Amino acid sequence: MSNSEKLRKFIQNRKAFNNSYLARESHWDKLEFSRWIRNKTDVIPQRVIENLVQVLKPYGYV
To answer: Whole-prediction pTM value?
Structure first.
């Protein structure tokens, strides 16, 4: 499983995450984030992956 798929599953399985917050913290456009999280696109910049990992580490993402 790729990093982007692993991140998507982690976020989708925890309904408490606010997608607007995650998009803002990862420095990504909210609409693009929304498309990615709903499996409409698999394109996610590497910098966004790195930012999301940093944001999600305190919530148990490994």
So the answer is: 0.85
